[in-house]
Amino acid sequence: MKMPQGTLAEERVAGMPSSVDTAATAPADVERTFGRIAKRIIPFLFLCYVLNYIDRVNISFAHLQFKTDIGLTEAAYGLGVGVFYIGYVLFEVPSNLLLRRIGPRRTIARIMVLWGLVSISMMLVRNPTQFYVARIALGVAEAGFFPGIIYYLTTWFPNRYRARVLSAFVLGIAVAGITGGPVSGWILSNAEGWQALHAWQWLFLLEGIPPVLVGVCALWYLPDSPETTKWLSAHEKAIVVRELEAVPGSTSHQISHFGAALRNWRVYVCAFGYFTITWAGSVLNFWAPSVIRQAGVANPFHIGLLSAVPYFIGAIGMLAVSRHSDARDERRLHFACCALVSALGAVLLGAAHSSFGPAIAGLALVAIGYLTCTAIFWTIPATFLSGTASAGSIALISSIGQLGSLTAPTAIGSLTAVTHSISAGSYLAAFVLTCGATVIAVAMRNGVAK
């Protein structure tokens, strides 16, 4: 796999070479070095993200059964989905700043073990209040995971590789949807009554154990930085440092201190752009099973299988568009166009959600736009942020953006409860996505994220 190039070189270890003779380093050596890094860390991070997303959205399958067991209305479900992001938002920036102090390895391990244990505890929920508390606790446990890994990847790969690297990582969302749906559907269809537990309780138990195990593995598998790896030669480490520092003209324009980043308007434009993406994610991740059931599919296992289709189509679209974005070295318009694709899918979903074909087509368009926007988006802040500003601001952007994940499910759930249809919520999501596409396309056009 051909891999990307350079970004933020951070904190060299003492005695490590700070440069490499350009003439002595063939392009093939650079490609080989980043290809080796990608093969070593991307599959593991990919697995972590797959598990993360399965545990975050398996609630959309569990609620098909447990809403009657714990007395949950559609509005209460939407609120429960949303309150996850209260803890997530509050602890995201502190988690990423702590990552800079204790390192990615310990941070990722801590987050995975905690979220796995909290996810398992969801099987003990007996009423809506306990449901809300468990969801908030899950948000606290997961806080900093996604932005921490985004920051981690920027310390390994230069800008020209990032859309491809991030798309490979974000592909975890699609794989979680492709695999998690059928697995969750199978558990719900077959586990009822095992050891006197409901099937939805087995769902939380069986899908909460893997992140605990993988989190423990992260402690010895992941290196904190290129400089601390034992599987890169000194020459390869120097290549990484040189490539990360070699972004033309970047040092004079990039913000390196978190305080300065807090005063920069581009940070908040990016935060609004990410806020709008989460609306597409809410429609896809938390209402797809309900939409498929309303379209006439009753069997939970069949719902799980069909829910994989939009993610599969979305993954293909994401990989193709991300590669095109890297080839053109253009992010802003790619993001805007894909946000509009999601908006179109939401409109189609609102207009024809009760018909099977249009419902799947609408979900597929939402998935294409959502997955691609998520992959491309995180290349934009790295064009004007570095160092501590990058670590803190990526978390800040994610935190503010995730307010969309708090408001979107609550709004969509409330509208669905009142109208007994997802149409109004889908149209609102389409409007928000159109606003995000417009703001990013217009505000970021002056030499940033071209």
UniProtKB/TrEMBL annotation:
It is found in: Membrane. The chain crosses the membrane at residues 41-63, 75-95, 107-125, 131-153, 165-188, 200-222, 267-288, 300-321, 333-353, 359-380, 392-412, 424-444. Keywords: Membrane, Transmembrane, Transmembrane helix, Transport. It holds the Pfam family MFS_1. It is a multi-pass membrane protein. Its main location: membrane. InterPro entries: MFS, MFS_dom, MFS_trans_sf. Residues 41-450 form the Major facilitator superfamily (MFS) profile domain. PROSITE patterns: MFS. This is MFS transporter.
